[in-house]
Specification:
Blueprint (H helix, E strand, L loop, with lengths): L5 E9 L6 E9 L2 E8 L5 E6 L3 H17 L3 E2 L28 E6 L4 E6 L4 E5 L3 E5 L5 E6 L4 E7 L2 E6 L3 E4 L6 E5 L6 E7 L2 E6 L3 E5 L5 E6 L7 E4 L4 E5 L2 E5 L6 E5 L5 E6 L3 E6 L3 E6 L5 E6 L4 E6 L5 E6 L3 E6 L4 E6 L5 E7 L2 E6 L3 E6 L2 H8 L7 E3 L7 E2 L10 E2 L7 E8 L2 E6 L10 E2 L10 E10 L3 E11 L1
Parallel strand pairs: 6-34, 10-35, 36-41, 39-41
Antiparallel strand pairs: 1-2, 1-5, 2-3, 3-4, 6-33, 7-8, 8-9, 9-10, 11-12, 12-13, 13-14, 15-16, 16-17, 17-18, 19-20, 20-21, 21-22, 23-24, 24-25, 25-26, 27-28, 28-29, 29-30, 31-32, 32-33, 37-38, 37-40, 40-41
């Protein structure tokens, strides 16, 4: 600890396998204890607690430091360890060799290279390298913008919840108006892609490693696959499917035991899944469909250039692919190529099909809506396409930034009738959130943003949903109860 009126202890935990790369700092100034923690190289989060006396503050600080030391933290000098590495995906996009251009209905330019896409019943989501996530309706009208601190690697959905994986090492929950950092990934994990299933986060990285983190942002297990540059991870109840430059490896979700490994024709650049199959788009110009049960390759879909993205219609009836030469393909489920068309605006880095429309995120940073109906594609093959509408930003577009402190959350004087109340409590040295309202299991933890947790604080939430792992997930807005 340093001399003077303020005494400070700085600790770090950095493990060789990348499971942790974190710091923990405790400062005591009279009766006030300030705790700062997070990824090494980042500013982290801060919690301030005032105690009845300086003696009690010093005792509480010593207890916190002791708990961390027992968990493997050790004294360190701030700034000596390097912050996390970040790979900005560099991709080439050649002109299309297709004879015709796809029937594009509308196009929205995000202003920066974009990789993340998600389309649901109500909205289209797109995230770019500038940290912007936009929501649009299916007609291309821009509804809102989330401004995140760093580039968006990918957007994933887990039931109702929408998450953005960012280059700052955090995963943000975008399901309510105010985004929250839901997960904080170890600083030496160079994130390539992620998926979330039942609140469990699966991260694939540059080194070919798979890291699994639970709903309380705690490391569960990690495995290094046979190949590096792991651009694919998909998860369900039976396995986590990890795609890298040596193929696809399936791991058991509980413990990470290897279930099967299948070499693919070329390194995996993108992945998609249906109920019983996974699809791997590869650098060797193919999409391959693999059985989730055995890893057997069931079908191959041949393109004319490296495959940057792929998707399917429900049940895998049609398979779509986007290649490095600005073309998009449609195949029958058995591998028969039905059509190939130019995107008219760069290569598709991510895609999703919904209700006879194919949504693409392209290398020029655009979200593109393609009419993939049989009639529209047939007309396009004959050279007749609609005039694509360029979507413009609304002048008064609502913009939301992440909440980093409890004060950033709106407050209410009393809980509305029928509202659900949760409370932050100390539990075995950790700050947890439990339900106070009747009708819920008070022993279950609530998945809750760490940045706004304060001991003893109560919050009102719109709804709680039980997850398979025995915890609750918040749906809707969070308000602090005064």
């Amino acid at each position: 600890m340093s001399g003077g009126s303020v005494s400070t202890t700085y600790l770090e935990l950095s493990q060789d396998d990348g499971a942790a790369h974190k710091f923990y700092e405790v400062a005591v100034d009279g009766p006030v204890v300030t705790v700062r923690y997070g990824r090494i190289g980042a500013s982290g989060q801060t919690q301030i607690t005032t105690f009845p006396s300086a003696d009690k503050a010093r005792a509480a600080a010593a207890k916190k430091v002791g708990e961390k030391v027992r968990k493997g933290y050790a004294p360190a000098v701030p700034g000596q360890r390097a912050p996390r590495a970040v790979t900005r995906r560099q991709v080439a996009s050649a002109p299309s060799t297709a004879r015709a251009v796809a029937p594009v209905l509308w196009r929205f330019g995000t202003g920066s290279a974009a990789f993340g896409i998600h389309v649901d019943d109500e909205h289209c989501w797109v995230g770019n390298q500038a940290g912007d996530v936009y929501t649009l309706d299916h007609d291309g009208r821009v509804l809102a913008r989330f401004n995140l601190p760093d580039g968006v690697k990918c957007l994933v959905a887990d039931d109702f919840w929408i998450y953005a994986g960012c280059d700052d090492g955090k995963v943000y929950d975008l399901s309510s108006k105010l985004p929250f950092a839901a997960y904080d990934i170890a600083a030496d994990v160079d994130i390539f892609w992620l998926d979330i299933h039942e609140g469990v986060l699966d991260v694939s990285d540059r080194d070919g490693k798979l890291t699994v983190i639970d709903h309380e942002d705690e490391h569960q297990w990690s495995r290094r696959s046979q190949g590096d540059h792991a651009w694919m991870v998909r998860a369900d109840d039976r396995a986590v499917y990890h795609g890298h430059h040596q193929g696809v490896t399936a791991y058991a979700p509980d413990g990470g035991g290897e279930l099967w490994h299948t070499p693919t024709r070329g390194g995996v650049l993108f992945g998609w899944q249906e109920d019983d199959t996974v699809y791997a788009g590869t650098a060797h110009r193919v999409v391959q469909r693999l059985s989730k049960e055995s890893g057997t390759i069931e079908a191959t879909y041949a393109c004319d250039s490296a495959v940057y993205s792929c998707a399917t219609s429900p049940g895998g009836r049609f398979v779509f692919a986007g290649d490095a030469a600005s073309s998009v393909y449609c195949f029958d489920q058995d591998g028969t190529r039905l059509w190939k068309l130019g995107t008219g605006g760069g290569s598709a880095l991510s895609m999703q099909y919904r209700n006879e429309r194919l949504y693409l995120v392209t290398t020029d940073g655009s979200l593109v809506c393609v009419d993939a109906s049989e009639a529209a594609v047939s007309a396009a093959q004959q050279g007749t396409v609609p005039v694509a509408r360029d979507v413009k930003l609304a002048e008064a577009l609502p913009t939301y930034a992440p909440a980093t402190t409890a004060s950033a959350v709106s407050a209410v004087a009393q809980a509305p009738t029928g509202a659900i109340v949760v409370q932050c409590v100390q539990d075995s040295g950790r700050l947890r959130v439990h339900v106070v309202s009747e009708g819920y299991d008070s022993s279950w933890n609530v998945q809750f943003p760490r940045a706004i947790r304060e001991p003893g604080a109560r919050y009102v939430v719109d709804a709680l949903h039980p997850a398979a792992g025995g915890f609750y997930r918040v749906r809707g807005d969070i308000r602090r109860l005064l």
